[in-house]
Amino acid sequence: MELFKMVKKAMAMKGKLNEIDNKLKKQIINVEYKCVKIQVNAKNEFLSLNIPESLLHERKDKIEKTILYAFEEARQKAQNIMAEEAKNLMLK
């Protein structure tokens, strides 16, 4: 009987995780850093990148740094959202 309860709880948790997963996929994060625009979802999946023509005339190392900083900002925002969702799940 106890095993049945554990399986039932595990199935309920799996359903909640799938629900959160879908919610995170739909939550879009737009980041702009020095005119570089990046779009990711809250699962930290890359959706788009827009590099302005003016940046392409800069030195290679400057372009790379700018893009990396933009990605890092987007990654951090996505992680914060994921952490908040995980926290909310644990409180339920």
The CATH H-level homologous superfamily: Nucleoid-associated protein YbaB-like domain
* Beta strands, count: 3
Helix content: 55-70%
Structural Rg = 19 Å
- Termini separation comes to 24 Å
Query: What ranges have pLDDT less than 50 throughout 5 or more consecutive residues?
Result: none
- Pattern of helices and strands: HEEEH
CATH class: Alpha Beta
Query: pLDDT average, as an integer?
Result: 90
Q: Which CATH-level-2 architecture?
A: 2-Layer Sandwich
Strand order of the largest sheet: 1-2-3
The major sheet is characterized as: 3 strands, antiparallel
Q: Structural class, please?
A: alpha+beta
Number of domains: 1
Write the layout of secondary structure elements.
Layout: H1 2-26, E1 28-33, E2 36-41, E3 46-50, H2 60-91
Antiparallel strand pairs: 1-2, 2-3
Descriptive overview:
The structure is a single chain. This protein has helices at about 1-25, 60-90, and strands at about 30-35, 35-40, 45-50. The chain has about 90 residues and is an alpha+beta fold. The chain has a 3-stranded antiparallel sheet with strand order 1-2-3. Helix 1 (about 1-25) runs antiparallel to helix 2 (about 60-90).
